[in-house]
Amino acid sequence: MLTNYKSRVRQKLFSDYRGLFLKEKSEDNEIKAAITRAVDDIIRLDNLSAGDEERMRMIEELVNEFIGYGPIEKLMQDPQVTEIMINGPKKVYAERAGHTVLTDVTFDDERQIMVLVYKILGHTRRRVDELFPYTEVSLKDGSRVNIIIPPLALDGPTLTIRKFMKEIKSADDLVKLGTFDERMSKFLVAAIKAKLNIIFSGATGAGKTTTLNVLSSYIPEDDRVITIEDTAELRLSQEHVVRLETRQPSIEGKGEITIRDLFKNSLRMRPDRIIIGEIRSSEALDMLQAICSGHTGSLAVLHANSPEDTIYRLETMILASGIPISLEAIHRQLNAAINIVVQQEQLLDGSRKITHIAQINGMKEGRVRLEDIFIYDIEEVKPDGTVTGRWKATGVTPLFMDKFKKSGVDLPMEIFKKD
Question: How far apart are the first and last CA of the chain?
Answer without folding.
Answer: 69
